[in-house]
Amino acid sequence: MATWDDVRRIALGLPETSERLSRDLRHWHVKDKGFVWERPLRRADFEALGEDAPEGPILGARVEHLGAKEALLSDDPAVFFTTPHFDGYPAILLRLERIGLEDLREVIVEAWLARAPKRLAKEYVDTSL
Fold it and tell me: Fold for domain 4-119?
């Protein structure tokens, strides 16, 4: 079971990443672009999801493209989900308490790569292999 401390540790371990608070919610940025964030469900989310609305901490994460989003949604619907608010937008929501640390790291790194400047992303990939 992953925690916010795990998210913080993984995100801040990536180059040129910062953590910010906005409306008491944590957001992680590479340069000035957000890549993962704390995203509690809102009233419209509860209305759209109905009985399927999850409880517990929710992490939002950018994905490279809508195809990647669809792949995650079909791969593990117990962890990954979306709401109408994110229709057509390259982002995924995940139940933090249901994801393993290795998978969490993969999601965060992929989100970071999707938002990092190309030079920085290339340097990271080249030195991480």
Answer: Aspartate Aminotransferase, domain 1 (3.90.1150)
User: Shortest CA distance to 108 belongs to which of 99, 117, 118?
Assistant: 99
The token pair that represents 30 in the structure block: 């590479």
Task: Tell me the pairing of strands 91-95 and 58-62.
Answer: antiparallel
Does residue 37 contact residue 25 with C-beta atoms inside 8 Å?
yes
Q: What is the spatial distance between Cα 91 and Cα 63, in angstroms, rounded to a whole number?
A: 5
Please tell me the number of Cα atoms within 13 Å of 66 on its side-chain side: 4
Backbone angles phi, psi at 74, to 5 degrees: -80, -25
For residue 37, the surrounding DSSP H or E stretch is strand 33-38
At 35, the amino acid letter reads: F
Unique residue bearing structure tokens 């993984």: 10
**Tens-of-pLDDT digits for all 129 residues of the chain?**
899 999 999 999 999 999 999 889 999 999 999 999 999 999 999 999 988 899 899 999 999 999 999 999 999 999 999 999 999 999 999 999 999 999 999 999 999 999 999 999 999 999 986
- Domain layout of the chain by residue ranges: 4-119
